[in-house]
Write a structure and sequence with these properties.
The chain is α/β, with parallel strands linked by helices. It has helices at residues 4-16, 19-26, 30-44, 59-82, 98-102, 105-113, 129-134, 168-174, 181-186, 198-207, 222-230, 240-248, 275-291; strands spanning 49-50, 56-57, 90-96, 117-123, 140-143, 152-166, 189-191, 216-218, 235-239, 253-254, 261-270.
């Protein structure tokens, strides 16, 4: 029989990635935390944590973390059904890329917040969200990776379409003869952050060559990136959900008609989900199928 106190202590250490911070959160000594983890590892018969250089769960630790997370979620769901409103919501974290959150995933988040869950949305580049799931920091994620981790499922959510756009003035100044590679490398591009590879992928797809260096500004929010383009600071890739209306009204120009960038997105979640997570996955996939290109 696994000890709930030891399991909760283990989950806290993983959450904070630190023994002392977990001890402070639990209001016990670091020594007590270490003893609980040591005892749990002896009971399970496996090393559960890698202590250096940072504290992260081992493969066995990931299984234990999924177990205690499942227990928490099912317990919270049961208490809410038996005694509605009497207990605090269960903590629940998801990892989502910023463009999805700014477009189709925002209504999903509002629906999730109405469930008996204390929702946390971790925002990262779509190529990096899977790492948060692997570390046990989130319960599900939107990712470009089609291969699931062990014990998880990757469901195809759909394709997100991006347009390469600029204002009419910027286009006339830098791309008077159309989008050419030479001009694209000289004109300033607007990217999300240093993890953002969408512009690289677009240039490779459009011109058939890998481009390593070009002029860039970084605006790390979808709204700021779009506004930077609207303010004539550069050109860049914007989700079609945001850009199409601006193109139709003449505020933006599609620099490469017929050469849109398509990004495949996958919803990664547990293979064996407790009931609250089943509802979450169903909600995410319902919105994805109605919003993204299938």
């Amino acid at each position: 029989m696994l000890d709930r106190q030891q399991l909760e202590t283990f989950a806290r250490v993983v959450e904070f990635q630190h023994f002392r911070r977990a001890a402070a959160a639990l209001n016990i000594s670091p020594g007590a935390v270490s003893q609980r983890i040591k005892t749990l590892e002896e009971v399970v018969g496996a090393l559960l944590l890698i202590r250096e250089p940072v504290v992260v769960p081992t493969k066995a630790g990931e299984e234990v973390l999924r177990y205690i997370t499942s227990v928490r979620l099912q317990e919270g769901d049961l208490l809410q059904r038996v005694m509605p409103g009497r207990f605090a919501p269960t903590d629940f974290a998801l990892a989502v890329n910023a463009d999805s959150l700014a477009t189709w995933f925002e209504p999903v988040a509002r629906q999730l917040a109405q469930l008996h869950l204390a929702l946390e949305i971790v925002v990262d580049d779509q190529d990096y969200t899977l790492g948060a799931l692997a570390r046990g920091e989130v319960k599900g994620c939107i990712s470009t990776e089609r291969m699931p981790l062990g014990g998880f499922v990757a469901e195809f959510a759909g394709r997100m379409r991006y347009l390469c756009v600029a204002t009419p003035g910027f286009a006339a100044k830098f791309f008077a003869s159309g989008l050419a590679l030479r001009d694209a490398l000289k004109a300033t591009s607007i990217l999300f952050n240093r993890k953002d590879t969408l512009h690289d992928a677009f240039l490779a797809s459009r011109f058939g060559v890998t481009v390593g260096r070009y002029v860039k500004h970084y605006f790390p929010s979808p709204e700021a990136l779009l506004n930077a383009i609207l303010d004539d600071l550069g050109y860049g890739l914007v989700p079609a959900m945001q850009a199409e209306h601006l193109v139709s009204t003449g505020k933006l120009v599609d620099l490469s008609p017929g050469h849109d960038l398509m990004v495949e997105l996958y919803w990664h979640h547990w293979e064996l989900e407790p009931e609250p997570l089943v509802r979450v996955s169903a909600l995410v996939m319902d919105y994805a199928r109605r919003s993204l290109i299938q």
